Amino acid sequence: MAGREGNRKLPPRAGSFKSVALLMLIPIGGILLFFFWSFLNNALSELQRPKPAEKPVTASAISEPHRGDIVLILDDVGFDHQPLSEAMTIDPNVNFAILPNGKRSTEFAAVLHGRGFELLCHLPMEPEGFPRISPGTGAVLTSMSDAEIVRTTRANVDAIRFARGVNNHMGSRATADRRVMTDVLGALPQGMYFIDSKTTGNSVAGSLAHSMNVKTASRNVFLDDAQDDASIRHQLGELSKAAAAHGIAVGIGHMYPSTVRVLTEDAPALRANGFRFRRASAVVE
Length: 285
Prior knowledge:
Elements: H1 2-6, H2 12-48, E1 68-77, H3 84-87, E2 95-98, H4 105-114, E3 118-125, H5 146-159, E4 163-170, H6 178-187, E5 193-196, H7 205-211, E6 216-218, E7 221-222, H8 229-246, E8 248-254, H9 257-272, E9 275-278
Parallel strand pairs: 1-2, 1-8, 1-9, 2-3, 3-4, 4-5, 5-6, 7-8
Helix pairs in contact: 5-6, 8-9
């Protein structure tokens, strides 16, 4: 009986199920084998693929070292026919000094502030040769009393919304007068700086500002006493030399088409050669 049980044949249904299961395993195994072969083939291809050659480092790929900072101030902003749109393309850190007595000063101040530029009140002050040489209406004059100087300064500053600082328009006589400059600097709102345009070598503005704890800086180079392109470009070269020698230099130009044209053309090369334009508020001390 036991021997018969050992030789017993499977029922027909069980045999059929086993056959079907074996038949199903064949395509599954084939699919698995195909994917395994594909994986091995791709892996071998990646190993055999040559690595891309590294690009040689060229001189142009090496950034220029920082050579100096330039504070660029454009004066006399606020009149018709000035190339304001072009000036705004020179560099985002150009500073604009707006005359309170300019016909379009309020409008231009709003436009420039809206574009993120730093503004200064370009304070009209008495020059040598006054009244033959006039700084325009609303100027600070040496003949004024202390109270009048304070009142005039504040009125001019208040006329230029968004101004972070002040620089003098003309003022060769006024900036050399210690009494006048003490009143002017004392009238500035807390935190406002003063840039001495240095229209005279006798100016006391910078030294007095330091003694009064008013942040200050002084002009190094005028760009456009002569308004032809060659002269302006030469002065811009002098400004970059001063920045390289001292780490920082202040250049003042005006809203002349020739000045704006040269600056627009030459600013990219200055940046490429390691010079950085800075806002006046970032460098005064």
